[in-house]
Design goal:
The chain is an all-alpha fold. The chain has eight helices and no strands. α1 runs antiparallel to α2 and α2 runs antiparallel to α3.
């Protein structure tokens, strides 16, 4: 399937999932049908890439699969903790993939910037986070911060393909934005059209991460 067609299908699935929100069509079945589908299509996008990077490809696919599990868990009222753990493991998978390319947190400025942003958001939300969730949330924020900082490491030090490095760096920033919006909406105050902003930045981030894998070249096979 041409990448442009796959991107269009992913966008349509994402829009239909977003449209399920009460402020839009108020049709929960759209969310159950199209939220997993949007992530599955991103997995298809990643699957067709990275044949020259088999180890990196496996870890990216693992991260996307764990993200799909998290997506499904978060659709259920009692699935927040399960979803949080699934996404924490997804970020660890991404970190492993990115560190195959560049040394872990090799850019202190990137880590400092993301750490300041994440700690600032966490400090603002901390009083509103239930006591039972504080440790899991803090662990998740730590993994998210390291993952996002590592995308910046790759983007800032990319040599062979700076365009892909910048795409990955954008993905890290979008993931941090999406989760900050989600946490604010869940623990602090309801945001207007929250589903739109949270999911649009989330799927854009995942698409960027999948797109970091090198395009398949003629004669290569999946491993």
């Amino acid at each position: 399937m041409p990448p442009q067609t796959l991107a269009a299908l992913t966008a349509v699935a994402a829009l239909l999932a977003i449209a399920s929100a009460p402020w839009a069509l108020d049709a929960p079945w759209l969310n159950f049908a199209f939220k997993p589908l949007a992530t599955l299509l991103i997995i298809v996008h990643a699957w067709a890439r990275g044949s020259q990077q088999p180890l990196i490809r496996r870890w990216i696919l693992a991260g996307l699969a764990l993200s799909l599990a998290g997506d499904i868990a978060l659709m259920w009222p009692r699935g927040f903790l399960v979803g949080l753990i699934a996404f924490l493991l997804a970020h660890i998978s991404y970190i492993v993939a990115f560190t195959r390319e560049h040394r872990f947190l090799a850019q202190p400025v990137a880590l400092t910037t993301y750490a300041l942003v994440a700690s600032g958001v966490l400090a603002l939300l901390w009083p509103s986070i239930p006591a039972a969730l504080r440790v899991p949330v803090a662990c998740y924020v730590l993994a998210l911060t390291a993952m996002s900082a590592q995308t910046a490491v790759v983007g800032l030090t990319a040599r062979d393909d700076r365009a892909r490095g910048r795409v990955l760096m954008l993905g890290g920033a979008l993931f941090m934005t999406s989760d900050a919006l989600l946490a604010t909406n869940r623990f602090a105050l309801p945001l207007p059209a929250a589903t739109l902003w949270i999911l649009a930045t989330y799927w854009s981030a995942q698409w960027c991460i999948a797109s970091w894998l090198k395009p398949r070249t003629a004669g290569t096979r999946d491993r």
